[in-house]
Amino acid sequence: MNSVELISALTTSLTYPDLLFIVDKDIAVVAIPASKVADLATELKTRPEFAFDMLTDLTAVDWLGKQTPRFEVVYHFYSTSHNHRLRVKAAVDEGQPVPSLTKLYSIANWFEREVWDLYGIKFARHPNLKRILLYEEFKGHPLRKDYPYDKRQPLEPETWPVRELQVQMEEGRKIHRP
Question: How far is it, in rounded angstroms, from Cα 88 to Cα 70?
Fold first, then answer.
């Protein structure tokens, strides 16, 4: 099924209000309100005619000053049985939580944590929404367009739990590190 056929099938099968269907660079794209993301993903995964069993990517776009709402959360789905792809875009206001997809796709856990860490977009009912790339004391979200590029972050002391043991082992072995 090519992208145009997939869009046609989605248009006739899905009855959500405010859906926008387009084909962009030979990829089927659906724009949906953020509150409906989990419902749509459930249908896309469970309906055999679609069978989108893989969430290949989840990211965000910051449209500061270019469009409203400010953020867009972008999901990339793939069907291994039908070999077709779908991009789902959900517009999100600042501070608006997006439903989590961790119950449907286990990989969403890491993807959603990354989006939270870098953009500050929260996911409702996420089991462990905390930083994944940056340290916990980091202030702000660095991929937001309003994050100051020259902002200094506090340096944290090395907190490796067994640092003292590591030093003792290195001294005992007389390891030379250049």
Answer: 17
